[in-house]
Amino acid sequence: MACVCLIVSASSINAEVNPQPFVIPELQTWIGAEGEVSLSGTIRVNGNDKELLRVANAYASDYKTMFGKALVVKKGTPQAGDIVLALEASNKELGKEGYKLSIANHITVTAATTQGAFWATRTLLQLSEQHEALPKGDAIDVPAYELRGFMVDVARKFMPIDYLNDLVKVMAYYKMNALQVHLNDNGFRQFFGGDWNKTPSAFRLESTQHPGLTSKDGHYTKKEFIDLQILGENNYVEVIPEIDVPAHSLAFAHYKPQLGSKDYGMDHLDMFHPETYPFIDSVFREYLEGENPVFRSKRVNIGTDEYSNRDKKVVEKFREFTDHYIKFVESFGKQAMVWGALTHAKGETPVKSDNVIMNIWHNPYAQPKDMKELGYKLVSIPDGLVYIVPAAGYYYDYLNCNYLYNSWTPANIGGVQFEEGDPAILGGMFAVWNDHHGNGISTYDVHHRTYPALQTIAVKCWTASNTTLPYAQWDAKRWTLREAPGVNWLGRIGKNESLVAKFGTVKPGDTLPFEEIGYDYTVSFKVTGAKEEKGTKLFSSKHTTLYISDPREGKIGFERDGYLNTFNYRIPEGQTVEIAIQGNNKMTRLYVDGRLKEELGVKMLYVMDDRRKANYISDPNMKNVVLSNTDGDKIYYQRTLVFPLRNVGQFKSNVSNLKIWNYIKQF
Q: Phi, psi at residue 193, to the nearest 5°?
């Protein structure tokens, strides 16, 4: 009888099916296969869709930015390791944003739209961050919610346009698709002597119709804002502009004082004044009209939150005002968005609800189920869960990402639970509100709070409750991913706690290979002091300066976002000292010759009223805020520093032995 022998290789016996790979947001489905495939360097585009070709080229550009390797886009039969992008418009299963990913002998992306194909390339980039060769398997990835967003308050904390541009890229990297930009607001009157005229306000867009309206301490030109939206379109992130009226409107009342309400506060527009409607009409019209309007997005938020409901007359007028601006925005072909307020302002005057989106933020202002019954599409943005107010002492300084990851989806609005997939729930957002004008918070500090929140909300809006990793494991893995291609506002250098760079000599005018290093860090160097003019820079980056002799006192200091902070130490002329500076998200320390000289931590500042003028303390960093240590409202002034490295200043002292650690080193 013949013997049939089965020969099985050792590699076959040990082969394992690939587990689901880690990406943010988590893949909705994954069927693992055996083995892996290395990229060939070729992307092939099926068909002649120009937008799909643009997506392929964008992916190739991002890949080179991240990994330094070129990918070539061309047509033809796929070979081993090629990436194939294909559209299948008839595939209703994938919807507008879903995609199929098959990683086998070559990698195939199939999507119904180019947006879905683009999201697939973000997945591929994240996989390439973690794997030299991609694990084989098949995924179908479709978002649970249509709108996945972030609202940023640039009115009370101006953020440079390059940050917003990079923020779009970060959002796209994590498949977030809506950036709402809150363009006008004001500080709280109690921090400014109770005087509306001294209370800061800002409108952050260039206005040619009302030039005096544009904020002088930071604004975006029309071209910058248009370009931001175009960047968003190219990354499938809609930039939603928000002009907030009739409350939060002190910028308009500062420009036209007659429009400020005498009954409810100057930050409330007087809706009964005959000039109010024509003026606000003209503000919106400037950005909405024409063939190429400044507001390119399909949606515009008109505000309409937190107005007084003291009497029925003003409630009905508020409802009329809201209805007017919903329809006004719609007359320019836009979809209107509002902040929920119609429970707070319950009345008889009709307010349009059909095809209107409502941000539900605080249920007493707008009860979610009532708003659903009225016909609004709802965006879940509950203040008690997803509001960041940096260093304010209320809401969240950093979101409770553990709780959100384990327990929240957009179907939960302030404790009111909807069914997952309820068609009334358009999606979810989180927000950064910079309530405390003048509190020393930098753009870097805002980003440090925003980034982990953004990753978390991205998961909960795309994957909803279908997460598979325990939070601790997910939290550890997420830090292996970059912010986005070419983006590093966190200033991360190196992956493990280590000495990441050292330079024997540092000459005036040198350029270093790093822009900056972020929290937590230690930077040390030796200095032989010389006489320096006030304002002499030691190191600088695009937005931050470290002075060897600060402009005010000639001491070591640093400046960012218009805030100057100074250590009580001056480099001695003719002496050599070793300086070390450490920083995290709460403080900045100065060491001299291994000994702690000073720690600039959170500084508690208190509101001062006119009755205590004898105790005046005026802090120049606080600009117009008058302060004293009396009981009352507090500002937690931050003195943090993301350390600048790129540019070496023109100093006379001798600087050497520069060392950079990406952790807080013990001395």
A: 70, 20
Structure tokens at 196: 């509306």
Q: 246: closest CA among 185, 201, 297, 330?
A: 185
Per-residue pLDDT tens for 294-310?
999 999 999 999 999 99
d(CA 231, CA 228): 5
Rounded Cα distance between 661 and 667, Å, is 13
- Assess if residue 8 is contained within a domain: no
Q: What is the pLDDT of residue 634?
A: 83
| Short-list 312, 321, 337, CA closest to 249 | 321
Are residue 391 and residue 350 in the same domain, yes or no? yes
Which of helix, strand or coil describes residue 244?
Answer: strand
CA-closest candidate to residue 550, choices 541, 563, 559:
559
- Domain end, chosen from 94, 123, 141, is at 141
In this prediction, the residues of the chain whose per-residue pLDDT falls under 70 are 1-15, 606-632
Domain range enclosing 562: 499-602+638-661
DSSP 8-state class, residue 511: B
- d(Cα 266, Cα 258) in Å, to the nearest integer? 9
What pLDDT was estimated at residue 615? Answer: 36
DSSP 8-state code for residue 26: P
User: What is the residue whose two structure tokens read 């795309």?
Assistant: 462
**578 with 526: CB under 8 angstroms?**
yes
* Residues 201 and 231 both lie in one domain: yes
Compute the distance between CA of residue 284 and CA of residue 293 in angstroms, rounded to an integer: 11
Query: What distance lies between CA 565 and its chain's CA centroid?
Result: 25
- Domain tally, the chain: 3
